[in-house]
Amino acid sequence: MLMNRSVLIVAVMAIVTIILRFIPFIIFSGNKKTPKLVAYLGDVLPSSVMAMLVVYCLKGISFTSTMAFLPYIAASAVVVLSYIWKRNTLLSIVLGTACFMIMV
């Protein structure tokens, strides 16, 4: 019974996710022009979300000793520099994570 309930929960979540993903294509299909507000949010939100994630990830840094903050700063620098160099998000994340894990 528990297995059936879990499968049903996953199925409902999958259906809701699919519907939410297709709603913009249904609303803005055909010759309908995208509203200026939606276009503006599409331009601004990715950078805003990334900035909030950086602040969230780095908020707990302790500057009491060099080893407390050096891995965070070095991994962040690796992410930024590798993204500027290759413009590959996945590569930047992997290199930054590897740098952090090696230093920790």
Topology, pairings included?
Blueprint: H1 2-27, H2 36-58, H3 66-86, H4 89-103
Report what the structure shows.
82% of the residues lie in helices and 0% in strands. It is built from four helices and no strands. With 104 residues, the chain is mainly alpha-helical. Helix 3 (66-86) runs antiparallel to helix 4 (89-103). The termini are far apart. It has helices at residues 2-27, 36-58, 66-86, 89-103. The mean pLDDT is 91.
* Helix-strand topology string: HHHH
Q: Could you say which overall geometry the principal axes of the C-alpha atoms support?
A: extended
Mean pLDDT, to the nearest integer, reads 91
State the helicity in percent bands: over 70%
Please give the number of β-strands: 0
Count of helix runs: 4
Biggest sheet overview? none
- Estimate the strand proportion: under 5%
End-to-end span in angstroms? 44 Å
Radius of gyration: 21 Å
Structural category is: mainly alpha
In terms of per-residue confidence, which ranges show pLDDT below 50 for 5 or more consecutive residues? none
In short, what is this structure?
This protein is an all-alpha fold. It is built from 4 helices and no strands. The model has no long low-confidence stretch (mean pLDDT 91).
Q: Which characteristics define this entry?
A:
single chain, 104 residues, mainly alpha, extended
